[in-house]
Design brief:
Elements: H1 3-15, H2 26-48, H3 50-58, E1 61-65, H4 68-99, H5 108-111, E2 132-135, E3 143-146, E4 155-156, E5 164-165, E6 171-173, H6 183-191, H7 195-204, E7 211-215, E8 220-223, H8 248-254, E9 258-265, H9 273-287, E10 294-300, H10 311-314, E11 317-318, H11 321-331, H12 342-353, E12 361-363, H13 365-375, E13 382-385, E14 391-394, H14 396-403, E15 414-421, H15 429-435, E16 441-448, H16 455-464, E17 468-472, H17 478-489, H18 491-495, E18 506-507, E19 511-512, E20 541-551, E21 554-564, H19 565-569, E22 582-586, E23 592-594, E24 622-623, H20 644-651, E25 658-666, E26 671-683, E27 690-696, E28 701-705, E29 724-725, H21 744-758, H22 769-781, H23 785-791, H24 793-798, E30 801-807, E31 813-817, E32 823-824, H25 851-855, H26 863-869, E33 876-892, E34 898-913, E35 916-926, H27 927-937, E36 946-951, E37 957-960, H28 975-978, H29 992-1004, E38 1007-1019, H30 1035-1055, H31 1059-1067, E39 1084-1095, E40 1112-1114, E41 1134-1140, E42 1147-1153, E43 1182-1184, H32 1202-1208, E44 1236-1237, H33 1244-1260
Parallel strand pairs: 9-10, 9-15, 15-16, 16-17, 17-44
Antiparallel strand pairs: 1-28, 2-3, 4-5, 6-8, 7-8, 7-21, 10-11, 12-14, 13-14, 18-20, 19-20, 20-21, 22-23, 22-27, 24-25, 25-26, 26-27, 29-31, 30-31, 30-35, 32-33, 33-34, 34-35, 36-37, 36-42, 38-39, 39-43, 40-41, 41-42
Helix pairs in contact: 1-2, 30-33
């Protein structure tokens, strides 16, 4: 035994109390803390060899100071090169398609005749083959199956994260409503076949993602092929309603940014079923708008008005999902006031788009005549008499404002008015001539209702003003009819095709790419689950670059290339920054594309949150200065989106870098840490993106090699054994598609061998040269580390240590593990159940989850790593309640209970060279080892009179000496049994005594209070509509919701309803049709806040101005006994002491009850000593209503009050953003284009298909 440990044990014997009746003092507690700290420190350093690791690195590397500006400029160059390469591939696809001849076969029959050479085949995404089913329009209704000549052979692809793909050909997806053998569709499918180009691109760029083409005819071609993911998991009735034309990348590529004014006719004839169709039409239109667009909704009957009272000042609202949902929620409260005054509504719509702040003067012929008689003049420069006898009085200033109108910088390129009505009484030609003589504002008419027949007026409005008129007869019509407006809005793109260059790439915001989904149809649940399975579709966020394709002056579709966000993250390597600093990326709206604080996945459902792609940068840089107001329902300061920091990020202004004091959260906001950041930004040329760095104060140091790497001297012995890992998702070197079956470690070893043999870095490693060089440094320095660990194994095992590890910022983990001789790592009592009827009935065998191999593979991204680097020079102790181990034989624990399981605990520490982070070293050990050590000290389990705790830096309980504690309690199925375990719980919420103690710890300065506002929270019980993300819920879900409603209503009408029931079902209002506007089961975005209590140490980010750090103290004045339990004052009298455990994150708290031989402690009985009601501490998140603009159920009570208006109408203030750079204004005559689709025929076949499909599914369920 080392001499130091002998000394510690001798001191332990000297301070052991005689029995529970001996009073303890502050000196005792301080002594216990010092002894514990020395024992833990000595054990940890000997086991991990932390000192030796520091010495190893000093021989190969040194600390250096880096310049964030220079680093960011290099990152900017790397990202621009990466994105430019992808955009060029999308551009080349555009050029290739525009140069291809269109299939010149006039006879439609020839395209569908398998006997002829003109027969068109394509590889179907849904079937994975090129077979065809042909329907003949004859008396017999014949169906012919053309057998497949090619079938996709899908194999796992390493460059697509293990997703199965096929490079044989591109796949073609045709939406369900579209007949896939339509002759015109087949011509376009055949024309779009550019697989040679796709294949060449993939061969030239190993890490190239999906290449796409979405046709205006609805089909999508993509390469490489991958199995299609259906929208329902039933293999007998797979459902697919995806349409690529509803994706953001298509709409942004096909159209320009828009200012949309939606006019909703609310005359009496528009009520009932027509109103339901109108609402869905509005929803479908809103689905096509992104944050680059602006809009408003204006119902009108007797008078026109905006749905949102706040909008009277803003006119047009930015089309954020928050604003779209707000408008949609208000549609349910719209009422009719009788006759519709079209002329007034049209004037207000034009005034809104033309930004005319002074409205037109409305008067009557009688009033004009009277004024002329009295004054000799009407007072107007011009008057117009409209249908219905209304007179528009026009002043010179008003006419000049119309003539001199220019759009503000923040608005979209094209102005659009959409009229939703069941018919108009007049043409209102004089109104259109006044405001739109130059036809700069497009007009679209949506004629609503099956019985609507007054086409002429609304058709004239659309046709004369470069728009389109459609007849929306029923709910089934909506989705397809709305697409007509997209086609019209693409005309300027087609007309100005020559003006679109390669530099005019359009980049989308981030979204979930469904091609990365894994289909549940083939998923099989394994009998034994070692690692919790992750849903791949929850993580693969992408941005897509797109270009419009114009063939013979006709818009044909949009090409695109997807870029996974994880690839962009690696181009700003965080290992080159300090341990606390980080990088991020923003889109043109200031929304975060990646950021270490972005939590896009809801932890319970494993699905994206509704607002995962619309989180503003300020909502992730959570300020330290926030405070909760009385009642805990609001905060002192709402986010200021006009802040200098945000503006500097958007403008990429580094002349005066901004500084913020923020709270950094980890463990799903279970812990927060203070740090002060300085922010730098660079704009990405060729895209409207911003990359940024947040450099923490004092964190400008990093490790640098003393000499360049000698690739020829790489030793293969460095890579031997299985006790090392690298980050599973980072690309160190590019790989082959076929490398999916080898591990990242095996792949890197192959490249290391090439380095040694060739004396140079392999070509496929050049794109990540800096990462590879730094990784080689870590591998070389630590190659003998396991030998050091092996020397100490016998001692470690005796102390319950079974795992030692070292992790670096480059993703390398070295570890050594040894099975303890008296421990099992699988549940020895598990037995496979008999008579299982289904795979889901299988009960997986419980197994130990390896701290490294299963739970913490991502080094610097894992919480243990982030905690350690934030507590420099301290060993960070914690309980590991994610897993457990089993004793070979039932064993008596330190708490005196017979146990067959044991809790585990971890200890980690960050290692620095000067001020530069080297890595984090740690151990995992049996929890009983800590309990036994405390038992020797005198603060062990079982003492009824002295209750000891170890609290961590956030006052979570690491140790409790209460003798009811059982190691099996955290996994107990009964709530009462789980309550026996205090591990991991927050100290202040345990009972009244700990609540009082926590209050004293706060008052005395052991902990300081801070408030964290979670702007990424979800709330389940909101009665109002809140913000989400347009790109969040994939467009096919929107269609599915609509069609599912139709099918359900038809089925019910045909089989269950009486005539009265039919009428009721038709006119019954529905809250929402499309998925983006429907209340989701997983909750809606909101803001929540909680107090946190942080350790108060005399260190950077751990000090408080209001509280001087304290080492040890008696918490009750004059070292007296206090009686916290008023209901049982005599049964509970306590002294309380606290002392920090040196060199750790632990605080030792001792609660000593007054000695009494015949009194059993009542301090911890919740019935006799209940907690305060309400609790003294607000620890735990509650919803707050004024932190951002998410709360939307209140209107300003006094719109004239500036403070009231700003509080309730913040959503109308569009945030600073980068406006889309390219605008085309169409001056061409579009008379040759069709301008209406007014057929009274409905999509009958579509209704029948949907009805049959949904009714079949229903009959099976």
């Amino acid at each position: 035994m080392p001499p130091m440990n002998l000394f510690v044990l001798s001191l332990l014997l000297l301070v052991l109390p005689a029995d529970g009746a001996v009073e303890i003092s502050l000196d005792d507690v301080k002594q216990w803390a010092n002894l514990l700290g020395e024992d833990l420190y000595q054990t940890f350093r000997e086991a991990t060899k932390a000192t030796e690791i520091q010495e190893m690195y000093s021989n190969y590397a040194q600390s250096e100071v880096f310049d964030p500006r220079l680093e960011l400029k290099q990152n900017k160059k790397d990202i621009e090169e990466y994105l430019k390469k992808r955009s060029k591939m999308a551009w080349d696809a555009k050029i290739s398609l525009q140069a291809r001849p269109y299939l010149n076969i006039s006879d439609d029959i020839d395209l569908n005749d398998p006997r002829k050479s003109t027969f068109v085949r394509f590889m179907s995404a849904k079937t994975g083959a090129n077979h065809a089913r042909l329907y003949f329009d004859d008396h017999y209704g014949r169906v012919l199956e053309a057998n497949a000549t090619e079938v996709f052979n899908y194999t796992a692809n390493a460059n697509f994260y293990g997703k199965k793909t096929s490079s044989a050909a591109s796949a073609v997806h045709v939406p369900t409503p579209q007949y896939n053998r339509d002759a015109d569709l087949l011509r376009k499918i055949e024309w779009s076949r550019i697989d040679e180009l796709y294949r060449a691109n993939r061969q030239a760029t190993r890490d190239l993602s999906f290449q796409l083409f979405c046709s205006e005819s609805s089909f999508m071609r993509y390469y490489p092929a991958t199995p299609w993911v259906w929208d329902n998991p039933d293999p007998q009735n797979p459902l697919d309603l995806f349409d690529c034309r509803s994706t953001e990348w298509y709409i942004n590529g096909a159209t320009l940014s828009k200012n949309v004014m939606i006019m909703l006719d609310m005359s009496g004839s528009m009520l009932g079923q027509r109103f339901e169709i109108a609402k869905q039409t509005i929803e479908s239109v809103l689905e096509t708008l992104s944050d680059n667009d602006f809009f408003n909704i204006m119902p009108f009957s007797k008078k026109p008005y905006f749905l949102d009272e706040c909008a009277e000042q803003a006119f047009l609202l930015q089309a954020t999902m928050r604003n779209k949902k707000l408008m949609r929620s208000k549609l349910n409260n719209v009422t009719s006031e009788g006759k519709a005054e079209y002329e007034k509504a049209l004037a207000k719509a034009f005034e809104t788009l033309l930004n005319l702040r002074t409205p037109v003067n409305w008067t009557t012929p009688e009033q004009v005549a009277t004024k002329v008689l009295q004054t000799g003049s009407s007072g107007f420069a011009q008057t117009l008499t409209t249908f219905g006898g209304h007179v528009m009085g026009l002043t010179d200033e008003y006419l000049a404002a119309i003539k001199n109108y220019t759009k503000g910088e923040k608005l979209g390129c094209n102005n659009v008015i959409m009229l939703i009505t069941d018919g108009a009484p007049d043409y209102y030609k004089e109104v259109f001539q006044l405001y739109n003589a130059d036809k700069k504002i497009r007009f679209f008419s949506f004629l609503i209702g099956d019985e609507a027949t007054d086409f002429d007026q609304v058709k004239w409005m659309a046709c004369t003003n470069k728009g389109f008129m459609v007849h929306v007869a029923n709910l089934a019509d909506v989705q397809e009819k709305v697409q007509h407006y997209i086609k019209v809005m693409s005309r300027p793109v087609a007309q100005q095709a020559d003006a679109i260059g390669e530099a005019d790439a359009v980049w989308s915001g981030i979204y979930r790419e469904r091609l990365f989904y894994v289909s549940p149809l083939n998923a099989v649940r394994p009998k034994r689950v070692r690692v919790a399975l992750k849903d791949p579709k929850s993580e693969k966020l992408v941005t897509t670059v797109s270009y419009p394709v114009v063939h013979n002056n006709t818009f044909m579709g949009v090409t695109g290339v997807t870029v996974p966000v994880i690839e962009l993250k690696q181009l700003i390597p965080h290992y080159k920054l300090g341990g606390l600093s980080y990088s991020f990326m923003l889109d043109n709206n200031g929304y975060v594309m990646f950021h270490p604080q972005l939590r896009p996945i809801e932890p319970n459902t494993k699905q994206p949150k509704p607002n995962y792609n619309s989180m503003d940068i300020l909502e992730l840089e959570v300020p330290q200065n926030q405070k909760l107001l009385a009642g805990h329902r609001s905060v002192v300061l709402g986010l200021d989106y006009t802040s200098e920091m945000r503006s500097a990020m958007i403008k990429c202004d580094n002349t005066d870098p901004k500084e913020l004091k923020i709270l950094y959260a980890i463990d799903d906001v279970g812990r927060v840490y203070r740090q002060t950041n300085t922010y730098y930004a660079e704009c990405i040329e060729g895209a409207l993106f911003t990359i940024g760095m947040a450099i923490a104060k004092g964190d400008e140091h990093r490790i640098a090699r003393r000499s360049p790497p000698a690739y020829g001297q790489v030793q293969m012995s460095w890579f031997e054994g299985k006790n090392w890992r690298i980050h599973p998702e980072w690309r160190y070197c590019l790989v082959n598609d076929s490398d999916a079956n080898i591990s990242p470690e095996e792949a890197f070893t192959i490249y290391a061998k090439q380095m040694r043999e060739g004396g140079a870095l392999p070509e496929l490693c050049l794109p990540r040269k800096e990462l590879v060089d730094r990784l080689l440094l870590d591998i070389e320095v630590t190659n003998s580390l396991t030998n050091y660990w092996d020397i100490n194994w016998e001692i470690d095992i005796g102390k319950g240590i079974h795992l030692v590890f070292f992790a670096t910022p480059t993703g390398l983990i070295r570890f050594a593990d040894e099975k303890l001789p008296f421990v099992e790592y699988e549940d020895p009592n598990w037995a496979e159940p008999d008579n299982l009827t289904a795979p889901n009935d299988i009960v997986p065998k419980q197994m130990y989850q390896h701290f490294i191999l299963d739970d913490n593979k991502r080094t610097s991204e894992d919480s243990y790593f982030q905690r350690a680097v934030r507590m420099r020079d301290r060993i960070v102790f914690d309980t590991n309640l994610k897993t457990k181990v089993w004793y070979t034989d039932e064993t008596t624990s330190a708490f005196g209970h017979r146990e067959n399981v044991s809790v585990l605990m971890t200890a980690t520490q960050a290692i620095f060279m000067d001020k530069a982070l080297v890595g984090v070293v740690g151990v995992e050990m049996l929890y009983d080892s800590l309990a036994q050590t405390l038992k020797k000290i005198g603060c062990g389990p079982g003492d009824d009179k002295t209750w000891c705790f170890l609290l961590d830096e956030h006052a979570y309980i690491v140790y409790s000496s209460l003798n009811t504690s059982r190691y099996s309690s955290p996994w107990a199925t009964q709530l009462g049994d789980r309550k026996n375990s205090h591990l991991g719980k927050w100290f202040g919420h345990l009972n009244l005594v700990t609540e009082m103690t926590m209050g004293l710890l706060h008052e005395r300065g052991f902990y300081v209070e801070t408030t964290y506002v979670d702007y990424q929270a979800l709330c389940q019980d909101q009665s109002y509509t809140v913000a989400g993300a347009m790109r969040l819920l994939n467009p096919f879900l929107s269609t599915f919701k609509s069609f599912h409603w139709i099918g359900r209503e038809l089925w019910s009408l045909l089989t269950e309803y009486t005539i009265l029931g039919v009428i009721s079902a038709i006119i019954r209002p529905t809250e929402a049709y499309t998925a983006s506007f429907h209340d989701l089961n997983e909750g809606l975005p909101c803001d929540k806040a909680s107090h946190f209590y942080l350790a108060n140490w005399k260190e950077e980010n751990w000090e408080s101005e209001g509280h001087a750090p304290v080492i040890a103290e008696s918490l009750i004045p004059n070292d007296r006994y206090d009686k916290p339990c008023k209901q049982s004052a005599q049964g509970c009298a306590v002294k309380i002491y606290a002392s920090w455990v040196p060199k750790t994150n632990l605080l030792l708290v001792a609660i000593a009850q007054k000695p009494s031989a015949d009194t059993v402690s009542e301090c911890y009985n919740p019935e006799k000593c209940p907690m305060s009601v309400p609790p003294k501490f607000l620890f735990g998140f509650t919803q707050v209503y004024n932190a951002t603009d998410k709360h939307m159920d209140m209107l300003p009570t006094d719109p004239e009050s500036d403070a009231e208006f700003e509080n309730q109408c913040r959503h109308i203030r569009s945030k600073e953003r980068k406006s889309p750079s390219k605008c085309f204004i169409s001056n061409d005559d579009e008379a040759e284009y069709p301008c209406s689709n007014a057929s009274l025929a409905t999509s009958t076949w579509l209704l029948i298909c949907i009805f049959a499909l949904l009714s079949t599914i229903r009959s099976r369920t």
